[in-house]
Recover the amino acids of this structure.
Protein backbone atom coordinates (compact mmCIF):
# COMPACT_ATOMS: atom_id res chain seq x y z
CA UNK A 1 0.00 0.00 0.00
CA UNK A 2 1.39 3.37 -0.98
CA UNK A 3 -1.53 5.67 -0.29
CA UNK A 4 -4.67 5.41 1.75
CA UNK A 5 -7.55 7.79 2.29
CA UNK A 6 -9.85 7.30 5.31
CA UNK A 7 -13.17 9.15 5.57
CA UNK A 8 -11.92 12.16 3.68
CA UNK A 9 -14.26 15.13 3.98
CA UNK A 10 -13.80 18.47 2.31
CA UNK A 11 -16.46 21.09 2.85
CA UNK A 12 -16.73 24.54 1.32
CA UNK A 13 -18.71 27.36 2.85
CA UNK A 14 -21.04 28.79 0.26
CA UNK A 15 -23.80 31.43 0.22
CA UNK A 16 -26.35 28.65 -0.02
CA UNK A 17 -24.81 26.68 2.83
CA UNK A 18 -22.09 24.07 3.21
CA UNK A 19 -21.09 22.10 0.12
CA UNK A 20 -19.54 18.67 0.56
CA UNK A 21 -16.91 18.47 -2.18
CA UNK A 22 -15.68 15.17 -0.72
CA UNK A 23 -18.02 13.22 1.49
CA UNK A 24 -16.38 10.49 3.57
CA UNK A 25 -14.20 9.17 0.78
CA UNK A 26 -12.03 6.15 1.55
CA UNK A 27 -9.71 4.23 -0.76
CA UNK A 28 -6.45 2.32 -0.83
CA UNK A 29 -3.84 2.57 -3.59
CA UNK A 30 -1.16 -0.08 -3.91
CA UNK A 31 2.34 0.36 -5.24
CA UNK A 32 2.34 0.29 -9.05
CA UNK A 33 -1.40 0.87 -9.44
CA UNK A 34 -2.71 2.94 -12.34
CA UNK A 35 -5.72 4.56 -10.70
CA UNK A 36 -8.28 6.39 -12.78
CA UNK A 37 -10.73 8.74 -11.11
CA UNK A 38 -13.81 9.53 -13.13
CA UNK A 39 -17.07 11.30 -12.52
CA UNK A 40 -19.17 14.18 -13.78
CA UNK A 41 -18.08 17.81 -13.47
CA UNK A 42 -18.23 18.97 -9.87
CA UNK A 43 -18.13 15.45 -8.49
CA UNK A 44 -14.94 16.21 -6.52
CA UNK A 45 -12.32 14.47 -8.70
CA UNK A 46 -9.84 17.34 -8.87
CA UNK A 47 -10.49 18.25 -5.22
CA UNK A 48 -9.56 14.69 -4.26
CA UNK A 49 -6.38 14.82 -6.36
CA UNK A 50 -5.28 18.18 -4.95
CA UNK A 51 -6.14 17.34 -1.36
CA UNK A 52 -4.03 14.18 -1.23
CA UNK A 53 -0.74 16.07 -0.76
CA UNK A 54 -1.92 19.20 0.95
CA UNK A 55 -2.64 21.51 -1.96
CA UNK A 56 -6.14 21.63 -0.50
CA UNK A 57 -6.44 21.11 3.24
CA UNK A 58 -9.08 18.58 4.35
CA UNK A 59 -11.99 19.32 6.65
CA UNK A 60 -11.58 15.89 8.24
CA UNK A 61 -10.26 12.43 7.50
CA UNK A 62 -6.85 10.82 7.29
CA UNK A 63 -4.38 10.40 4.47
CA UNK A 64 -1.62 7.88 4.90
CA UNK A 65 1.36 7.92 2.54
CA UNK A 66 3.88 5.10 2.80
CA UNK A 67 2.73 4.30 6.29
CA UNK A 68 2.70 7.86 7.66
CA UNK A 69 -0.19 10.22 8.20
CA UNK A 70 0.31 13.32 6.11
CA UNK A 71 -3.00 15.17 6.55
CA UNK A 72 -1.90 16.71 9.84
CA UNK A 73 1.73 17.59 9.09
CA UNK A 74 3.12 21.06 8.40
CA UNK A 75 3.05 22.77 5.03
CA UNK A 76 6.80 22.58 4.95
CA UNK A 77 6.85 18.79 5.36
CA UNK A 78 4.10 18.38 2.77
CA UNK A 79 6.06 20.58 0.38
CA UNK A 80 9.07 18.35 0.94
CA UNK A 81 7.03 15.21 0.21
CA UNK A 82 5.66 16.75 -3.01
CA UNK A 83 9.17 17.76 -4.03
CA UNK A 84 10.68 14.32 -3.54
CA UNK A 85 7.89 11.80 -4.02
CA UNK A 86 5.18 13.26 -6.24
CA UNK A 87 5.00 14.35 -9.87
CA UNK A 88 2.14 16.43 -11.24
CA UNK A 89 0.73 16.54 -14.76
CA UNK A 90 -1.97 19.11 -15.55
CA UNK A 91 -4.40 19.51 -18.42
CA UNK A 92 -2.84 22.83 -19.47
CA UNK A 93 0.73 21.41 -19.32
CA UNK A 94 1.79 24.33 -17.05
CA UNK A 95 5.23 24.66 -18.57
CA UNK A 96 7.24 27.74 -17.69
CA UNK A 97 7.02 29.79 -20.89
CA UNK A 98 10.46 31.40 -20.88
CA UNK A 99 12.38 28.19 -20.19
CA UNK A 100 13.49 25.76 -22.86
CA UNK A 101 12.30 22.15 -22.91
CA UNK A 102 15.47 21.01 -21.15
CA UNK A 103 15.23 23.77 -18.53
CA UNK A 104 11.57 23.01 -17.85
CA UNK A 105 12.43 19.38 -17.17
CA UNK A 106 15.28 20.47 -14.90
CA UNK A 107 13.00 22.50 -12.58
CA UNK A 108 12.11 19.65 -10.13
CA UNK A 109 15.81 18.78 -9.90
CA UNK A 110 16.61 22.42 -9.26
CA UNK A 111 14.12 22.45 -6.38
CA UNK A 112 15.90 19.40 -4.96
CA UNK A 113 19.17 21.32 -5.27
CA UNK A 114 20.78 18.67 -7.46
CA UNK A 115 24.00 19.83 -9.15
CA UNK A 116 23.77 21.53 -12.53
CA UNK A 117 25.62 18.79 -14.41
CA UNK A 118 23.43 16.08 -12.93
CA UNK A 119 20.33 18.11 -13.76
CA UNK A 120 21.32 18.36 -17.41
CA UNK A 121 22.27 14.67 -17.60
CA UNK A 122 19.04 13.42 -16.05
CA UNK A 123 16.76 15.83 -17.93
CA UNK A 124 18.43 14.91 -21.24
CA UNK A 125 18.01 11.20 -20.48
CA UNK A 126 14.30 11.63 -19.77
CA UNK A 127 13.76 13.73 -22.89
CA UNK A 128 15.48 11.01 -24.87
CA UNK A 129 13.22 8.43 -23.19
CA UNK A 130 10.06 10.31 -24.26
CA UNK A 131 11.45 11.03 -27.72
CA UNK A 132 12.05 14.77 -27.46
CA UNK A 133 15.83 14.88 -27.46
CA UNK A 134 15.73 16.93 -30.66
CA UNK A 135 13.56 19.62 -29.00
CA UNK A 136 15.68 20.32 -25.94
CA UNK A 137 16.41 23.95 -26.78
CA UNK A 138 12.88 24.78 -27.93
CA UNK A 139 10.59 27.04 -25.95
CA UNK A 140 7.13 25.66 -25.08
CA UNK A 141 5.46 27.91 -27.67
CA UNK A 142 7.61 26.25 -30.35
CA UNK A 143 6.22 22.80 -29.52
CA UNK A 144 2.94 21.12 -30.46
CA UNK A 145 0.33 20.39 -27.77
CA UNK A 146 1.31 16.72 -27.68
CA UNK A 147 4.99 17.60 -27.36
CA UNK A 148 4.24 20.07 -24.58
CA UNK A 149 2.35 17.40 -22.64
CA UNK A 150 5.24 14.99 -23.16
CA UNK A 151 7.56 17.63 -21.71
CA UNK A 152 5.19 17.96 -18.74
CA UNK A 153 5.32 14.16 -18.31
CA UNK A 154 9.10 14.23 -18.51
CA UNK A 155 9.13 16.96 -15.86
CA UNK A 156 6.84 14.88 -13.63
CA UNK A 157 9.13 11.83 -13.66
CA UNK A 158 12.62 13.34 -13.86
CA UNK A 159 13.07 13.34 -10.08
CA UNK A 160 11.96 9.68 -9.87
CA UNK A 161 8.77 10.18 -7.85
CA UNK A 162 6.81 7.38 -6.16
CA UNK A 163 3.52 8.77 -7.42
CA UNK A 164 2.25 10.75 -10.40
CA UNK A 165 -0.89 12.83 -10.01
CA UNK A 166 -2.39 13.58 -13.41
CA UNK A 167 -5.36 15.93 -13.69
CA UNK A 168 -7.05 15.48 -17.09
CA UNK A 169 -3.72 15.02 -18.89
CA UNK A 170 -5.42 14.42 -22.24
CA UNK A 171 -8.13 17.06 -21.83
CA UNK A 172 -6.51 19.47 -24.31
CA UNK A 173 -5.41 16.89 -26.84
CA UNK A 174 -7.06 15.31 -29.88
CA UNK A 175 -7.86 11.57 -29.69
CA UNK A 176 -4.69 10.45 -31.46
CA UNK A 177 -2.45 12.52 -29.23
CA UNK A 178 -4.47 11.46 -26.21
CA UNK A 179 -3.74 7.82 -26.97
CA UNK A 180 -0.08 8.63 -27.42
CA UNK A 181 0.06 10.30 -24.00
CA UNK A 182 -1.91 7.51 -22.33
CA UNK A 183 0.50 4.98 -23.79
CA UNK A 184 3.36 6.97 -22.34
CA UNK A 185 1.76 6.99 -18.93
CA UNK A 186 1.15 3.27 -19.16
CA UNK A 187 4.77 2.73 -20.16
CA UNK A 188 5.99 4.83 -17.24
CA UNK A 189 3.69 2.94 -14.89
CA UNK A 190 4.83 -0.44 -16.05
CA UNK A 191 8.51 0.15 -16.74
CA UNK A 192 9.30 2.42 -13.82
CA UNK A 193 6.77 1.02 -11.33
CA UNK A 194 5.52 4.53 -10.64
CA UNK A 195 2.01 4.64 -9.20
CA UNK A 196 -0.31 6.90 -11.21
CA UNK A 197 -3.52 8.52 -10.06
CA UNK A 198 -5.25 10.07 -13.08
CA UNK A 199 -8.41 12.17 -13.07
CA UNK A 200 -10.21 11.97 -16.41
CA UNK A 201 -13.50 12.55 -18.15
CA UNK A 202 -12.58 10.25 -20.96
CA UNK A 203 -13.87 6.65 -20.91
CA UNK A 204 -10.94 5.70 -23.14
CA UNK A 205 -8.48 7.09 -20.62
CA UNK A 206 -10.39 5.49 -17.78
CA UNK A 207 -9.89 2.16 -19.55
CA UNK A 208 -6.15 2.37 -18.83
CA UNK A 209 -6.77 2.10 -15.11
CA UNK A 210 -5.89 -1.00 -13.16
CA UNK A 211 -7.97 0.45 -10.36
CA UNK A 212 -11.00 2.63 -11.05
CA UNK A 213 -12.72 5.12 -8.78
CA UNK A 214 -15.93 6.82 -9.83
CA UNK A 215 -17.09 9.83 -7.87
CA UNK A 216 -20.51 11.41 -7.78
CA UNK A 217 -21.43 14.35 -5.52
CA UNK A 218 -18.26 13.86 -3.50
CA UNK A 219 -18.80 10.16 -2.83
CA UNK A 220 -17.12 7.11 -4.32
CA UNK A 221 -19.86 5.22 -6.10
CA UNK A 222 -17.64 2.69 -7.88
CA UNK A 223 -14.29 1.60 -6.52
CA UNK A 224 -12.61 0.20 -3.45
CA UNK A 225 -14.27 2.48 -0.92
CA UNK B 1 19.95 25.44 -13.09
CA UNK B 2 19.48 27.47 -9.94
CA UNK B 3 16.89 29.96 -8.77
CA UNK B 4 19.34 32.76 -9.61
CA UNK B 5 19.67 31.47 -13.16
CA UNK B 6 15.91 31.13 -13.43
CA UNK B 7 15.58 34.80 -12.42
CA UNK B 8 18.23 35.90 -14.90
CA UNK B 9 16.62 33.92 -17.73
CA UNK B 10 13.23 35.44 -16.92
CA UNK B 11 14.70 38.95 -16.88
CA UNK B 12 16.55 38.38 -20.13
CA UNK B 13 13.58 36.89 -21.94
CA UNK B 14 11.38 39.84 -20.91
CA UNK B 15 13.69 42.69 -21.74
CA UNK B 16 11.01 45.25 -22.48
CA UNK B 17 9.51 44.70 -19.03
CA UNK B 18 12.97 44.95 -17.54
CA UNK B 19 13.53 48.34 -19.18
CA UNK B 20 10.20 49.74 -18.01
CA UNK B 21 10.85 48.41 -14.52
CA UNK B 22 14.25 50.07 -14.44
CA UNK B 23 13.16 53.41 -15.85
CA UNK B 24 11.79 55.12 -12.75
CA UNK B 25 14.54 54.05 -10.40
CA UNK B 26 17.30 54.81 -12.93
CA UNK B 27 15.97 58.30 -13.59
CA UNK B 28 15.51 58.92 -9.89
CA UNK B 29 19.05 57.92 -9.04
CA UNK B 30 20.33 59.89 -12.03
CA UNK B 31 18.67 63.09 -10.78
CA UNK B 32 20.18 62.70 -7.32
CA UNK B 33 23.65 61.91 -8.69
CA UNK B 34 23.49 64.88 -11.08
CA UNK B 35 22.43 67.32 -8.34
CA UNK B 36 25.01 65.97 -5.91
CA UNK B 37 27.83 66.00 -8.49
CA UNK B 38 27.12 69.62 -9.38
CA UNK B 39 26.65 70.75 -5.77
CA UNK B 40 29.80 69.06 -4.52
CA UNK B 41 31.93 70.68 -7.20
CA UNK B 42 30.14 73.95 -6.59
CA UNK B 43 30.93 73.78 -2.87
CA UNK B 44 34.55 72.97 -3.63
CA UNK B 45 34.76 75.89 -6.02
CA UNK B 46 33.34 78.27 -3.48
CA UNK B 47 35.62 76.93 -0.77
CA UNK B 48 38.55 77.54 -3.06
CA UNK B 49 37.35 81.02 -4.00
CA UNK B 50 36.86 81.91 -0.37
CA UNK B 51 40.29 80.69 0.46
CA UNK B 52 41.71 82.78 -2.32
CA UNK B 53 40.13 85.80 -0.73
CA UNK B 54 42.35 85.18 2.27
CA UNK B 55 40.78 85.84 5.65
CA UNK B 56 37.07 85.37 5.64
CA UNK B 57 36.17 86.02 9.28
CA UNK B 58 36.75 89.19 11.25
CA UNK B 59 36.78 89.42 15.01
CA UNK B 60 36.18 93.05 15.96
CA UNK B 61 35.76 94.74 19.31
CA UNK B 62 32.17 94.99 20.51
CA UNK B 63 30.65 98.17 19.10
CA UNK B 64 33.13 98.43 16.25
CA UNK B 65 31.89 98.36 12.72
CA UNK B 66 33.58 97.09 9.62
CA UNK B 67 33.95 100.73 8.62
CA UNK B 68 36.01 101.30 11.78
CA UNK B 69 38.24 98.48 10.70
CA UNK B 70 38.74 99.98 7.27
CA UNK B 71 38.99 103.65 8.25
CA UNK B 72 41.20 102.94 11.26
CA UNK B 73 40.17 106.02 13.22
CA UNK B 74 42.43 107.13 15.98
CA UNK B 75 39.94 106.27 18.68
CA UNK B 76 38.66 103.06 17.16
CA UNK B 77 38.05 100.43 19.86
CA UNK B 78 40.46 97.56 20.37
CA UNK B 79 40.37 94.06 21.82
CA UNK B 80 42.94 92.16 23.89
CA UNK B 81 45.68 90.29 22.10
CA UNK B 82 44.97 87.35 24.48
CA UNK B 83 41.91 86.49 22.42
CA UNK B 84 44.19 84.90 19.83
CA UNK B 85 45.43 82.55 22.51
CA UNK B 86 41.87 81.91 23.62
CA UNK B 87 40.94 80.72 20.14
CA UNK B 88 44.12 78.67 19.82
CA UNK B 89 43.54 76.83 23.08
CA UNK B 90 39.86 76.19 22.37
CA UNK B 91 38.51 73.00 20.81
CA UNK B 92 37.11 74.86 17.84
CA UNK B 93 38.12 73.33 14.54
CA UNK B 94 38.12 74.94 11.11
CA UNK B 95 40.38 77.88 11.97
CA UNK B 96 43.17 77.55 9.45
CA UNK B 97 45.02 80.73 10.32
CA UNK B 98 44.71 83.87 12.42
CA UNK B 99 46.29 87.24 11.94
CA UNK B 100 45.76 89.83 14.61
CA UNK B 101 46.11 93.41 13.39
CA UNK B 102 46.41 96.79 14.91
CA UNK B 103 45.59 99.58 12.50
CA UNK B 104 45.77 103.30 13.09
CA UNK B 105 45.78 106.32 10.84
CA UNK B 106 49.05 108.21 11.39
CA UNK B 107 50.87 111.11 9.81
CA UNK B 108 54.04 110.53 7.83
CA UNK B 109 55.28 113.93 6.98
CA UNK B 110 52.23 115.72 5.69
CA UNK B 111 50.56 112.58 4.44
CA UNK B 112 47.95 110.54 6.30
CA UNK B 113 48.59 106.81 6.07
CA UNK B 114 47.25 103.75 7.76
CA UNK B 115 49.88 101.95 9.79
CA UNK B 116 49.06 98.29 10.30
CA UNK B 117 50.83 96.08 12.75
CA UNK B 118 50.92 92.46 11.77
CA UNK B 119 52.21 89.36 13.49
CA UNK B 120 54.73 88.05 11.00
CA UNK B 121 54.57 84.38 11.78
CA UNK B 122 50.82 84.10 11.49
CA UNK B 123 50.03 86.83 9.03
CA UNK B 124 48.79 85.53 5.79
CA UNK B 125 50.86 87.03 3.08
CA UNK B 126 47.49 87.55 1.79
CA UNK B 127 46.11 87.07 -1.50
CA UNK B 128 48.11 85.70 -4.33
CA UNK B 129 49.20 89.17 -5.37
CA UNK B 130 51.26 89.55 -2.24
CA UNK B 131 53.00 86.28 -2.99
CA UNK B 132 53.79 87.35 -6.52
CA UNK B 133 55.86 90.14 -5.05
CA UNK B 134 58.30 87.53 -3.82
CA UNK B 135 57.47 87.35 -0.13
CA UNK B 136 58.59 84.12 1.42
CA UNK B 137 57.61 82.18 4.47
CA UNK B 138 55.86 79.05 5.69
CA UNK B 139 53.03 77.73 3.57
CA UNK B 140 49.62 77.94 5.13
CA UNK B 141 47.54 75.03 4.03
CA UNK B 142 43.84 75.60 3.64
CA UNK B 143 41.83 72.60 4.73
CA UNK B 144 38.52 73.44 3.16
CA UNK B 145 38.30 70.57 0.78
CA UNK B 146 36.10 67.65 1.86
CA UNK B 147 37.99 65.12 3.91
CA UNK B 148 40.19 67.85 5.35
CA UNK B 149 42.94 67.09 2.86
CA UNK B 150 45.09 70.11 2.54
CA UNK B 151 44.96 71.75 -0.86
CA UNK B 152 43.32 68.82 -2.47
CA UNK B 153 39.73 68.55 -3.54
CA UNK B 154 39.12 65.58 -5.78
CA UNK B 155 42.31 66.22 -7.64
CA UNK B 156 41.54 69.84 -8.32
CA UNK B 157 44.46 71.36 -6.52
CA UNK B 158 44.61 75.09 -6.41
CA UNK B 159 48.11 76.45 -6.15
CA UNK B 160 46.74 79.66 -4.78
CA UNK B 161 45.77 77.84 -1.64
CA UNK B 162 49.43 77.47 -0.82
CA UNK B 163 49.77 80.89 0.76
CA UNK B 164 52.89 81.99 2.44
CA UNK B 165 53.21 83.50 5.85
CA UNK B 166 55.52 86.39 6.37
CA UNK B 167 58.18 85.39 8.80
CA UNK B 168 60.91 87.67 7.62
CA UNK B 169 59.59 91.00 8.84
CA UNK B 170 62.18 92.27 11.27
CA UNK B 171 61.62 94.81 13.97
CA UNK B 172 62.65 97.78 11.83
CA UNK B 173 61.22 96.53 8.57
CA UNK B 174 58.02 97.53 6.90
CA UNK B 175 56.10 96.78 3.74
CA UNK B 176 54.31 99.48 1.82
CA UNK B 177 51.17 99.30 -0.25
CA UNK B 178 51.41 100.50 -3.82
CA UNK B 179 49.36 103.69 -3.43
CA UNK B 180 51.05 104.83 -0.25
CA UNK B 181 54.43 104.13 -1.83
CA UNK B 182 53.54 106.42 -4.71
CA UNK B 183 52.24 109.16 -2.46
CA UNK B 184 55.29 109.03 -0.18
CA UNK B 185 57.67 108.30 -3.03
CA UNK B 186 58.87 105.15 -1.31
CA UNK B 187 60.98 102.43 -2.80
CA UNK B 188 62.48 99.20 -1.54
CA UNK B 189 65.39 99.47 0.91
CA UNK B 190 64.60 103.11 1.48
CA UNK B 191 64.16 104.31 5.06
CA UNK B 192 60.97 105.90 6.30
CA UNK B 193 60.27 107.61 9.61
CA UNK B 194 56.96 106.78 11.29
CA UNK B 195 56.07 108.42 14.61
CA UNK B 196 59.74 109.09 15.14
CA UNK B 197 60.95 105.55 14.48
CA UNK B 198 63.06 104.63 11.50
CA UNK B 199 61.84 101.76 9.34
CA UNK B 200 63.38 100.10 6.28
CA UNK B 201 60.95 99.51 3.45
CA UNK B 202 61.67 95.91 2.50
CA UNK B 203 58.99 95.53 -0.14
CA UNK B 204 56.55 97.57 -2.17
CA UNK B 205 53.44 95.54 -2.75
CA UNK B 206 51.90 95.35 -6.18
CA UNK B 207 48.53 96.99 -6.62
CA UNK B 208 45.82 94.82 -5.12
CA UNK B 209 42.79 97.08 -5.51
CA UNK B 210 42.11 96.69 -1.78
CA UNK B 211 42.68 98.79 1.35
CA UNK B 212 46.12 97.21 1.52
CA UNK B 213 47.26 99.60 -1.20
CA UNK B 214 47.01 102.50 1.27
CA UNK B 215 48.69 100.79 4.17
CA UNK B 216 52.13 100.41 5.63
CA UNK B 217 52.67 97.09 7.37
CA UNK B 218 55.10 96.68 10.24
CA UNK B 219 55.70 94.25 13.07
CA UNK B 220 52.71 94.23 15.44
CA UNK B 221 54.82 94.57 18.56
CA UNK B 222 56.58 97.65 17.15
CA UNK B 223 53.30 99.23 16.13
CA UNK B 224 51.71 98.54 19.55
CA UNK B 225 54.71 100.15 21.22
CA UNK B 226 54.71 103.10 18.85
CA UNK B 227 50.98 103.72 19.34
CA UNK B 228 51.13 103.10 23.06
CA UNK B 229 48.44 100.46 23.06
CA UNK B 230 50.33 97.32 23.93
CA UNK B 231 48.63 93.91 23.93
CA UNK B 232 45.67 95.34 22.06
CA UNK B 233 44.63 94.76 18.47
CA UNK B 234 42.01 96.30 16.20
CA UNK B 235 40.87 93.04 14.76
CA UNK B 236 41.72 89.41 14.32
CA UNK B 237 41.44 88.24 10.75
CA UNK B 238 40.69 84.55 10.57
CA UNK B 239 41.03 82.23 7.66
CA UNK B 240 38.19 79.86 8.43
CA UNK B 241 37.37 76.73 6.55
CA UNK B 242 34.29 77.33 4.39
CA UNK B 243 32.66 74.08 5.49
CA UNK B 244 33.34 74.90 9.11
CA UNK B 245 31.66 78.29 8.60
CA UNK B 246 28.65 76.41 7.28
CA UNK B 247 28.75 74.24 10.37
CA UNK B 248 28.54 77.19 12.74
CA UNK B 249 32.14 78.32 13.25
CA UNK B 250 30.96 81.91 13.79
CA UNK B 251 28.66 80.98 16.66
CA UNK B 252 31.39 78.90 18.27
CA UNK B 253 33.75 81.88 18.11
CA UNK B 254 31.06 84.14 19.55
CA UNK B 255 30.67 81.74 22.45
CA UNK B 256 34.29 81.97 23.48
CA UNK B 257 34.65 85.67 22.65
CA UNK B 258 31.40 87.08 24.05
CA UNK B 259 32.40 90.74 24.11
CA UNK B 260 33.39 90.87 20.45
CA UNK B 261 31.73 91.13 17.12
CA UNK B 262 32.40 88.14 14.87
CA UNK B 263 31.47 88.60 11.27
CA UNK B 264 32.27 87.20 7.86
CA UNK B 265 33.99 89.16 5.16
CA UNK B 266 31.83 89.70 2.16
CA UNK B 267 28.36 88.56 1.32
CA UNK B 268 29.74 85.74 -0.70
CA UNK B 269 30.18 83.57 2.35
CA UNK B 270 26.64 83.78 3.60
CA UNK B 271 25.20 83.62 0.10
CA UNK B 272 27.15 80.55 -0.74
CA UNK B 273 26.41 78.89 2.57
CA UNK B 274 22.73 79.47 1.85
CA UNK B 275 23.15 78.06 -1.65
CA UNK B 276 24.97 75.01 -0.35
CA UNK B 277 22.33 74.42 2.28
CA UNK B 278 19.60 74.84 -0.33
CA UNK B 279 21.29 72.25 -2.54
CA UNK B 280 21.44 69.87 0.41
CA UNK B 281 17.75 70.42 1.11
CA UNK B 282 16.86 69.91 -2.56
CA UNK B 283 18.83 66.66 -2.56
CA UNK B 284 17.05 65.50 0.59
CA UNK B 285 13.64 66.31 -0.85
CA UNK B 286 14.57 64.54 -4.08
CA UNK B 287 15.79 61.57 -2.08
CA UNK B 288 12.46 61.27 -0.28
CA UNK B 289 10.51 61.64 -3.52
CA UNK B 290 12.70 59.11 -5.31
CA UNK B 291 12.39 56.69 -2.43
CA UNK B 292 8.61 56.74 -2.60
CA UNK B 293 8.18 57.07 -6.36
CA UNK B 294 10.95 54.56 -7.11
CA UNK B 295 9.72 52.16 -4.43
CA UNK B 296 6.12 52.34 -5.63
CA UNK B 297 7.23 51.98 -9.24
CA UNK B 298 9.33 48.89 -8.51
CA UNK B 299 6.62 47.50 -6.25
CA UNK B 300 4.07 47.98 -9.01
CA UNK B 301 6.37 46.31 -11.51
CA UNK B 302 6.98 43.32 -9.24
CA UNK B 303 3.27 43.07 -8.44
CA UNK B 304 2.42 43.02 -12.17
CA UNK B 305 5.11 40.39 -12.62
CA UNK B 306 3.70 38.32 -9.76
CA UNK B 307 0.21 38.44 -11.27
CA UNK B 308 1.51 37.52 -14.69
CA UNK B 309 3.32 34.54 -13.20
CA UNK B 310 0.59 33.23 -10.92
CA UNK B 311 0.42 29.92 -12.77
CA UNK B 312 4.18 29.58 -12.70
CA UNK B 313 4.19 30.24 -8.94
CA UNK B 314 1.38 27.70 -8.59
CA UNK B 315 3.18 24.96 -10.50
CA UNK B 316 6.43 25.65 -8.65
CA UNK B 317 4.64 25.40 -5.31
CA UNK B 318 2.89 22.23 -6.51
CA UNK B 319 6.24 20.72 -7.49
CA UNK B 320 7.61 21.41 -4.04
CA UNK B 321 8.97 24.95 -4.09
CA UNK B 322 8.92 26.36 -0.59
CA UNK B 323 7.62 29.83 0.19
CA UNK B 324 11.19 31.00 0.71
CA UNK B 325 11.98 29.92 -2.85
CA UNK B 326 9.26 32.28 -4.08
CA UNK B 327 10.65 35.03 -1.83
CA UNK B 328 14.09 34.39 -3.23
CA UNK B 329 12.83 34.52 -6.82
CA UNK B 330 11.24 37.95 -6.53
CA UNK B 331 13.64 39.56 -4.08
CA UNK B 332 16.56 38.45 -6.22
CA UNK B 333 14.87 40.04 -9.18
CA UNK B 334 14.40 43.24 -7.16
CA UNK B 335 18.06 43.10 -6.11
CA UNK B 336 19.22 42.78 -9.72
CA UNK B 337 16.93 45.64 -10.74
CA UNK B 338 18.31 47.69 -7.86
CA UNK B 339 21.93 47.07 -8.82
CA UNK B 340 21.26 47.75 -12.50
CA UNK B 341 19.22 50.87 -11.65
CA UNK B 342 22.00 52.14 -9.40
CA UNK B 343 24.72 51.65 -12.00
CA UNK B 344 22.67 53.11 -14.85
CA UNK B 345 21.44 55.96 -12.64
CA UNK B 346 25.02 56.79 -11.65
CA UNK B 347 26.19 56.76 -15.27
CA UNK B 348 23.25 58.85 -16.48
CA UNK B 349 23.45 61.29 -13.56
CA UNK B 350 27.19 61.72 -13.89
CA UNK B 351 26.87 62.25 -17.63
CA UNK B 352 24.15 64.83 -17.04
CA UNK B 353 26.31 66.58 -14.44
CA UNK B 354 29.37 66.61 -16.69
CA UNK B 355 27.40 67.91 -19.68
CA UNK B 356 25.02 70.30 -17.91
CA UNK B 357 27.35 71.48 -15.09
CA UNK B 358 29.20 74.04 -17.22
CA UNK B 359 25.93 75.41 -18.63
CA UNK B 360 23.83 75.48 -15.48
CA UNK B 361 26.38 76.23 -12.77
CA UNK B 362 29.37 77.42 -14.77
CA UNK B 363 31.57 74.74 -13.31
CA UNK B 364 33.39 71.73 -14.63
CA UNK B 365 31.96 68.59 -13.04
CA UNK B 366 34.02 65.46 -12.75
CA UNK B 367 32.67 62.01 -11.84
CA UNK B 368 32.50 61.34 -8.11
CA UNK B 369 33.14 57.61 -8.09
CA UNK B 370 32.05 57.05 -4.49
CA UNK B 371 28.55 57.95 -5.68
CA UNK B 372 28.51 54.69 -7.65
CA UNK B 373 28.51 52.78 -4.37
CA UNK B 374 25.88 55.07 -2.83
CA UNK B 375 23.74 54.88 -5.98
CA UNK B 376 23.76 51.09 -5.89
CA UNK B 377 23.03 50.94 -2.15
CA UNK B 378 20.20 53.45 -2.44
CA UNK B 379 18.73 51.83 -5.51
CA UNK B 380 18.88 48.35 -3.97
CA UNK B 381 17.27 49.64 -0.77
CA UNK B 382 14.44 51.29 -2.73
CA UNK B 383 13.98 48.25 -4.94
CA UNK B 384 13.88 45.77 -2.05
CA UNK B 385 11.59 47.98 0.03
CA UNK B 386 9.18 48.35 -2.89
CA UNK B 387 9.18 44.61 -3.59
CA UNK B 388 8.55 43.34 -0.09
CA UNK B 389 4.75 43.48 -0.13
CA UNK B 390 4.21 41.94 -3.61
CA UNK B 391 6.77 39.24 -2.82
CA UNK B 392 5.07 38.44 0.48
CA UNK B 393 1.73 38.15 -1.31
CA UNK B 394 3.26 35.97 -4.03
CA UNK B 395 4.62 33.55 -1.45
CA UNK B 396 1.21 33.45 0.24
CA UNK B 397 -0.58 32.52 -2.99
CA UNK B 398 -2.61 29.36 -2.78
CA UNK B 399 -1.09 27.14 -5.51
CA UNK B 400 -4.33 25.30 -6.00
CA UNK B 401 -6.42 28.39 -6.82
CA UNK B 402 -3.77 29.68 -9.19
CA UNK B 403 -3.72 26.41 -11.09
CA UNK B 404 -7.48 26.29 -11.26
CA UNK B 405 -7.33 29.34 -13.54
CA UNK B 406 -6.27 26.84 -16.16
Amino acid sequence: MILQGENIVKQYQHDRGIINALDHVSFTVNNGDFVTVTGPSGSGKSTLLLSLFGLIRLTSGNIIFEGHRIDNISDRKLTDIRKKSVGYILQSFALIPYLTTLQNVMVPLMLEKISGKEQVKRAAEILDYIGLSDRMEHLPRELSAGQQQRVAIARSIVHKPRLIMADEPTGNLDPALSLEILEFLKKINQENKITIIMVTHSPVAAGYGTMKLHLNEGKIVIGNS
Amino acid sequence: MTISKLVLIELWKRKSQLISGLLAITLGIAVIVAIQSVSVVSEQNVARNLDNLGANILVLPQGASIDDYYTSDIDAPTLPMDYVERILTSTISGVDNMSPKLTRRVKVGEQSVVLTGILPKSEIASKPLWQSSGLTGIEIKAACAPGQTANQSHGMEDEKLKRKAIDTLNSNDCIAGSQVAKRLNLSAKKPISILGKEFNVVKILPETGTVDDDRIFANLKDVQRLLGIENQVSAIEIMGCCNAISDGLLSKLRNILPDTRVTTIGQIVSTQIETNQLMKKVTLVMLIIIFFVGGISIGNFIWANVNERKREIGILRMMGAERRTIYKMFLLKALILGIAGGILGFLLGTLAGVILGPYLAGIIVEPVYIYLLWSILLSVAISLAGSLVPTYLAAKFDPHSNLQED
